[in-house]
Design brief:
Elements (H helix, E strand, L loop, with lengths): L11 E3 L2 E5 L5 E5 L2 E3 L5 E6 L5 E2 L4 E10 L3 E2 L5 E9 L2 E10 L2 E5 L7 E10 L5 E10 L1 E9 L4 E4 L2 E4 L2 E6 L3 E5 L3 E2 L3 E6 L6 E5 L5 E9 L2 H10 L3 H14 L13 E6 L6 H6 L9 E4 L13 E9 L5 E10 L1 E7 L7 E6 L20 E3 L5 E9 L5 E7 L5 E3 L5 E3 L3
Parallel strand pairs: 6-13, 14-22
Antiparallel strand pairs: 1-4, 2-3, 5-7, 7-8, 7-11, 9-10, 9-12, 12-13, 14-17, 15-16, 15-18, 18-21, 19-20, 20-22, 23-24, 23-25, 25-30, 25-33, 26-29, 26-31, 27-28, 27-30, 31-32
Helix pairs in contact: 1-2
The structure holds calcium ion (2 copies).
Length: about 425
């Protein structure tokens, strides 16, 4: 490798360039900044201090300086502040821009798992610069969400999780929490421990808290039949449905409240084939939970399998298309009519897909399926989670419409 030595007798900033040209006449150039007789300045953030935490809505004051071995203390005009918002693994630049020795901003709420990286860049008279950065993080607290009885899914900030679950969030942040009005086993929402409505906004307090959604046995009719139905939670759900309809207070209860998912735990393997071969699958499920759409709550843990059965009742006649997304694997079966014996696979995931992405594999999407309005078609979804992420969504395209997750209002509970 050729080496070249250059001497720069005058102080200043030099940009030596190296150009290489190949036999075909194509060339490339690289350059380098060389400052002769000068050293770079030292940027230093004096405030906020590393590790300092701020509440959402609080004013954050920042202050800094830079000393240059050649120029001495640099003027405010040579100090530029910038902010980089870290959101999960994403970076958003230009979260803040300012010039000077000091300034302030109000700490905004960008959601959980976020913080601002505040940087000061000092540039001396020769164009040499240095940078100092500090993380500006919100004051964090842990909120635990529980349900009585435990295990029911609750929604925190738009995502559903099985209870109990914990979230790290920020003091003074506002978040939406939601408890379904109806849950599996004939349960009705009763109250939140903070006294809020089933769906309400919380302002995150200064310390860790537990928020509990309490459920009670549903309509009176369900209580009367509870004993007979004890061995069959699905049957109990149907009777609950009938009981709810007879209770004037619950006449608006939508049919989907009885749509149930059956869950088996401790299931080995990462495929549906492995799932359906296990002894567990041929026994009673470990738990049941209600669904409001063909979408499973995420964060359900590892090594479990789910079966959802019911009837699809199309709102209009015509050609429908179906699609499924899952991690680790999911399959959608549809009957030619209401008889489970006439089911066939219309869509499945050959390998894990990203959440809500239906274009990864051709097998994920069905061809056109002709359905008649008001008819009941048996529908079954099988899902297997091994480890890491879990998700399942089943979407459809009604005639002349866009893709949407199949809502519970088009589904009826399975009848044995
Ligand atoms: Ca300098
Ligand atoms: Ca997984």
């Amino acid at each position: 490798m050729p080496t070249r030595h250059d001497a720069y007798p005058e102080d200043g900033l030099y940009q030596p360039r190296l150009t290489v040209t190949d036999a075909a006449g194509l060339s490339a150039t690289a350059s380098l900044a060389v400052a002769v007789g000068s050293e770079q300045p030292a940027a230093e953030i004096l405030a906020p201090e590393a590790g300092a935490r701020f509440r959402i809505g609080e004013t954050v004051s920042f202050r800094g300086r830079a000393v240059d071995p050649d120029d001495g203390e640099l003027a405010g005009s040579q100090l530029v502040w910038s902010g980089i918002l870290h959101h999960n693994e994403h970076l958003h630049y230009d979260a803040l821009q300012a010039t000077g020795t000091e300034g302030s901003f109000v700490l905004a709420d960008h959601g959980d798992n976020t913080f601002l990286e505040l940087c000061l860049t000092a540039t001396d008279s020769q164009g040499l610069s240095s940078k100092d950065c500090v993380d500006v993080k919100p004051v964090e607290v842990t909120y635990t969400f529980a349900a009585l009885p435990a295990g029911l899914p609750l929604t925190y900030n738009g995502s559903r999780y099985f209870t109990p679950f914990q979230v790290k969030t920020y003091v003074q942040a506002r978040r939406l929490v939601e408890a379904p009005l109806r849950a599996a086993g004939g349960l009705s929402f009763s109250s939140w421990s903070d006294g809020g409505d089933a769906v309400h906004e919380i302002t995150v307090g200064d310390s860790d808290q537990v928020l509990t959604a309490r459920y009670t046995e549903g309509a009176e009719a369900a209580d009367e039949t509870g004993e007979a139905a004890a061995g069959s939670p699905l049957l109990a759900a149907e009777e609950q449905e009938a009981g709810a309809a007879a209770d004037p207070g619950h006449t608006s209860t939508p049919a989907w409240t009885a749509l149930q998912a059956e869950r088996w735990d401790g299931v080995d393997g990462d495929t549906l084939e492995a799932f359906t071969r296990t002894p567990q699958y041929h026994n009673e499920p470990a738990s049941l939970f209600a669904l409001s759409a063909l979408e499973l709550p995420r964060g359900g843990g590892t090594h479990y399998g789910v079966r959802i059965r019911g009837y699809l009742v199309p709102p209009q006649s015509g050609d429908y298309r179906f699609a499924i997304a899952a991690d680790d694997q999911g399959a959608l079966f549809l009957g030619l009519d209401a008889d489970p014996a006439h089911k066939r696979v219309v869509a499945y995931t050959p390998a894990p897909t990203p959440a809500g992405v239906y274009e990864q594999f051709v097998e994920q999407r069905s061809g056109p399926v002709t359905l008649e309005a008001g008819q009941r078609y048996y529908i079954e979804v099988l899902y297997k989670q091994a480890d890491h992420k879990d998700h399942l969504t089943v979407a459809w395209q009604q005639p002349g419409e866009g893709w949407a997750v199949i809502d519970g209002r088009f589904l009826e509970p399975f009848q044995r």
